[in-house]
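CHAIN AND CONFORMATION:

***
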Amino acid sequence: MTKKNSVNLGYLGFNFQIKLVKQLIEDIKFSEEIMDIVSPQYFDNEYLRLVVASVKDYYEKYETIPTYETVFEIIRVDIKREIVRDSAIEIVKDVKNGDSKDCLHIQDTALKFCKQQELKKANQKIQKILELGDFDRYDECEEILKGALSVGGEKDTGIDVFHAIEDVLSDDFRAPIATGMIAIDNLMDGGLSKGELGVILAPFGVGKTTLVTKMANNAYNLGYNVVQIFFEDNPKVIQRKHITCWTEVPLSELTENREEIKKVIPKFKSKEGSLILKKMPSDGTTIPKIKQYLKKLTSNGNKPDIVFIDYMDCVVPSKQFKDEWSGEGNVMRQFETMITELDVVGWTAIQGNRSSIGASVVEADMIGGSIKKGQIGHFIISIAKTLEQKEAGTATLAILKSRFGKDGVIFEDILFDNGTLKIDTDISSDVSFLDFEKGEEKKKSNLVIEAMRKKKRVFGEQ
């Protein structure tokens, strides 16, 4: 069968069809786009047709895509003939164990095929009307054609408030990825989930890269596919930071302990997920370029779960703006749109302004540049280090904004060592901004009292 007169996907091969079914089950967004127009009859293998029919029936009944476990259960219950049931189960196993390489090509080709089939059906209906010579039905022909051209699109028309209520009420509806800082994760209800944007605010030289690397390392250790994008550091510098996270050997002592480190690295290399480090140029990188890179990873079978950009001030707008601040807000908005479209968790860091340098706590009004960079974030955490804290390897973390948990919380003098990449919030109890300010006022008052006492002692002795 040639491509020109194909009525099913057989001309693309069996492996293509296996990969397509994998995308139908695993990529919810794609499934919602194609589910109404994909037909079991488009598959030339009877067992694949059976599996696709089961997935479509489940989707039409429950308005959600079944998991592999559910598909297995449907086949076991609904198919009575043992030989058919066993063959269908084996097909599902092949689908589940298959790779996701070229998934974007698979999706694009399948969508085009299904849309063309809809156009063929519409053309046949219109042709019958034209053959009858019933010209008063022109409007009907036009509607048939419009309907065929509009199918297979993204369903973003809103949802009924009662849609998929079981998923809404489930404990894990967000499926968050933890940061690894227990106290912070507790306040975030477990971390950020896909489609959510986290922002780290800090002045230069405090530890933005340390925190980003620590969270990226933790996500990888949990088995996720992680992408860490950076602009200013050498890739070897970031690699060394991750090695320190795993081995707890300080950055300054890695070289002298390299033989011992090489022995334990395989243990961390065997994790289920992946950790990709990508250095990009800071003189022309836009969000569309980052998106293109992430799509390439996905197409090669390595779809990211979480993406870190260190840091957003290095990303330039994809179009010109009258002022720099408008461009900064647009870049952050593009980032938010990208993580939603790609269904990933997004974290980025931004610079604080001059007043944030040496501040005891970095507050929201200390964002450098456009305040819109913070307004867009779902969760904003700040890092502050006084000179004393830099010496002691500590810091003050503040939760400035949280759309799904408590904010206005400060963790004072937590362990935050850039040399060992150790960050521990458990050694500090959290306080509110108001209590922190009262504490700062009390410290200042005590300093004044102590200064007056010293002055009395000095003058009293004279």
Summary: The mean pLDDT is 85. DSSP finds 17 helices and ten strands in the chain.
